[in-house]
User: Which sequence fits this backbone?
């Protein structure tokens, strides 16, 4: 067998520790697959994180990132720094030095991937990023290689475990958002500053990557429409339940006649769909493609060992491909670099979806009739409508409406007219609804 491949890790925290642990624990099995051993010889970290037990005596520790990316003995750099500024700099430096890079950094790929892949292509090295989307789920490989025969129609994914955990708990325990967020922070699922998770930024990074490899388009993070879960009220979770739906925070990308839709937001999903039953911190990505039909990829979206599993799969891929001509490797973004197409991204006002609307109105004659008139004037067809009995003592009632598919700007126009009605107490709550069936793409 050839000499082992030498790896340097930038950032030996939880995920880095998990990666070294699995590499050592399964060393023989990994070498049988890769054709040679893969060993971490250098790591950059303030201190060793030994949450996962691994042998440290053969790992050279340093605090200088540049020492690793410039180290002549290292073949592959694993970038686990997080953030984008230093991570970008170190990744480009490693590439310039002819090193292959494996990263779990979704923000880095979503925002700087076009530049990084161009540099890697130029230099004939690989940049692998399986761990950037869906944690341990091999979704990049599934789309890029497993579905290579297919024209992909759409993908819809639960790609942020923190948001999914919060929505699951809100439904199961009938709790409100703030209480569950505090619990998620206590359990270590949500970070101290949870903004990226609960405002949809993390999911938007991941969706950018999925869309690029699904449709062969450049990475376009700045064009993703982003909505988080902070405005989801317990009553919406309950009404969804009553109507046979679950609210899931989804990243959705679709190929339509107008272009590519790129959006992350809370979504009503029929509760009979498998993906609607993905609970807690788990992730799942549902893909509709022309030859295979629907396929669903489910698993742990975070965590030291699952993320380590994805990183090591990339290390094995890179190791196997080392002797191949760089022009004949699997392209970074699934399609040949000169075959990417610049399809337009559909503005959010132009997307088509169904909608859940919740209105809080005075309990008086004619309000409901006015509301339905406005909807019909705007050519919005109603799928279901419920007026809830007023809670005792309250002067207002909740009216819940599900619409058929309509262009978003049309529903916005109708909402504006409804909010101007005499007797409306609060702003209308609007949540998009997707059936996630094969007909989802008839527009
Ligand atoms: N913060 C992410 C999540 C995990 O909550 O899913 C890492 O991508």
Assistant:
């Amino acid at each position: 067998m050839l000499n082992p491949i030498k790896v340097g890790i930038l950032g030996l925290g939880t995920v880095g520790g998990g990666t070294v642990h699995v590499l050592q624990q399964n060393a023989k099995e990994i070498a049988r697959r890769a054709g040679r051993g893969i060993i971490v010889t250098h790591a950059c970290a303030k201190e060793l994180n030994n949450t996962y037990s691994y042998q440290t005596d053969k790992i050279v520790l340093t605090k200088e990132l540049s020492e690793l990316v410039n180290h002549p003995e290292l073949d592959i750099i694993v970038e686990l720094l997080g953030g984008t500024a230093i991570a970008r700099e170190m990744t480009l430096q490693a590439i310039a030095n002819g090193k292959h890079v494996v990263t779990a950094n979704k923000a880095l790929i979503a925002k700087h991937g076009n530049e990084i892949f161009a540099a890697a292509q130029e230099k004939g090295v690989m940049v692998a990023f399986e761990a950037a989307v869906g944690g341990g789920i091999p979704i990049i490989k599934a789309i890029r290689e497993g579905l290579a025969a297919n024209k992909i129609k759409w993908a819809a994914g639960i790609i942020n475990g923190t948001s999914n955990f919060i929505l699951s708990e809100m439904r199961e325990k009938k709790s409100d958002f703030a209480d569950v967020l505090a619990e998620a922070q206590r359990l270590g699922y949500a970070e101290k500053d949870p903004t990226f998770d609960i405002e949809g930024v993390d999911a938007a990074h991941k969706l950018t990557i999925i869309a690029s490899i699904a449709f062969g388009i450049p990475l376009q993070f700045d064009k993703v429409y982003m909505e988080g879960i902070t405005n989801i009220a317990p009553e919406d979770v309950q009404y969804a339940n009553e109507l046979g739906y679950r609210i899931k925070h989804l990243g959705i990308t679709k190929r339509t006649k107008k272009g590519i839709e790129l959006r992350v937001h809370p979504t009503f999903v029929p509760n009979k769909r498998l993906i609607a039953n993905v609970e807690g911190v788990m992730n799942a990505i549902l893909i509709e493609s022309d030859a295979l039909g629907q396929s669903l990829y489910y698993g742990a979206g975070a965590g030291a060992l699952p993320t380590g599993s994805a990183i090591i799969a990339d290390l094995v891929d890179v190791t196997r491909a080392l002797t191949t001509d760089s022009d004949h490797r699997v392209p970074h973004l699934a399609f040949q670099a000169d075959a990417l197409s610049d399809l337009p991204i559909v503005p959010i006002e132009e997307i088509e979806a169904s909608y859940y609307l919740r209105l809080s109105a005075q309990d008086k004659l004619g309000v409901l009739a006015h509301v339905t008139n406005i909807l019909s004037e705007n050519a919005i067809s109603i799928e279901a409508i419920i007026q809830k009995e007023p809670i005792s003592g309250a002067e207002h009632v909740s009216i819940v409406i599900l619409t058929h598919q309509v262009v978003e700007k049309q529903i916005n126009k109708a909402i504006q007219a409804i909010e101007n009605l005499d007797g409306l107490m609060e702003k209308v709550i609007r949540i998009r609804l997707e059936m996630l069936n094969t007909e989802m793409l008839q527009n």
